[in-house]
Amino acid sequence: MKTLKVSGTPRCIAWNPNPAICLCLVAVDQSLLVLNPGLGDKILISDTDSMIQNKETSEPAGKSPPLSWTVCEDDQYGEGYRFILSHPKEITHVSWHGKGDYFASVMPKGDSKAVLIHQLSKQRSQNPFSKPKGLVQCVYFHPIRPFLFVATQRYIRVYNLLKQELTKKLMTSCRWVSSMSIHSGGDNLVIGSYDCKLTWFDLDLSTKPYQTLRHHKKAIRQVSFHKRYPLFASASDDGTVIVCHGMVYNDLLQNPLIVPVKVLHGHKITKDLGVIDCEFHPTQPWVFSSGADGTIRLFT
């Protein structure tokens, strides 16, 4: 459909979850690119561009912003580049807020600027934390409430962004957290770790794991919940993707039900690396996986 040339190694890509906005984020070394890929409905593409241009810039008084936004013009604009956010250190992870206006970027070596939150409509960035809390692996926004989940090597911290305070600190019992995924209801999450454990947390029950699964033989690289079906998947260096049924009940007295469903083989292990990433289709019960063997596979 389209090829975009970038000046370094793309580490992470995130599509805007809002169906009315045609944008995606690409983390390339120390730059965060905001791109309009120009795919799909032409009215949607032009509406997105006019929304970006009619921005309301209001700089907060007193504080200087942690980084500046570069507006792309001419040739870059024609290729789809809209903004470039230059960070002081390498970016490893980016994620959007569910409404598609805010996004967060992670620089594990950025010390007090390890996590930055950016607002698209006002084109400004802010640094929510004054002190580093350890090596940050990834951050995600709560799907409904104003919470931010920050995963460091051993803990998951849940912050309330409105009150600007720490709400919960989850004990993962893992040596090194690799990935995290939040259920669409927001009260359950799964954590993958490099020491082969997959842990499920029910935030209403406890700050300790509700269940720990040890199905993988090697490090878990990625975990992912399905947006609509009661499914979650984990991708590992043992070359497999394991899909589990994870049912969350509306009845608060009933605990989640977790049942392994299927082990998906297909990727070849290359240089001791197996499946690097997995992601569910937004509406169908299909899972995409990308491996170190240089292939992306779709399991249906």
TrEMBL record:
Function: Component of the PeBoW complex, which is required for maturation of 28S and 5.8S ribosomal RNAs and formation of the 60S ribosome.
Location of the protein in the cell: Nucleus, Nucleolus
Family annotation (SMART domains): WD40
This protein's name: Ribosome biogenesis protein ERB1
SUPFAM superfamilies (UniProt xref): WD40 repeat-like
GO CC annotation: PeBoW complex; preribosome, large subunit precursor
Keyword Cytoplasm: no
One BP term from GO: maturation of LSU-rRNA from tricistronic rRNA transcript (SSU-rRNA, 5.8S rRNA, LSU-rRNA)
Main location: nucleus
InterPro entries reported for this sequence: BOP1/Erb1, WD40/YVTN_repeat-like_dom_sf, WD40_repeat_dom_sf, WD40_rpt
Keyword annotations: Nucleus, Repeat, Ribosome biogenesis, rRNA processing, WD repeat
Protein species of origin: Mytilus galloprovincialis (Mediterranean mussel)
GO molecular function: ribonucleoprotein complex binding
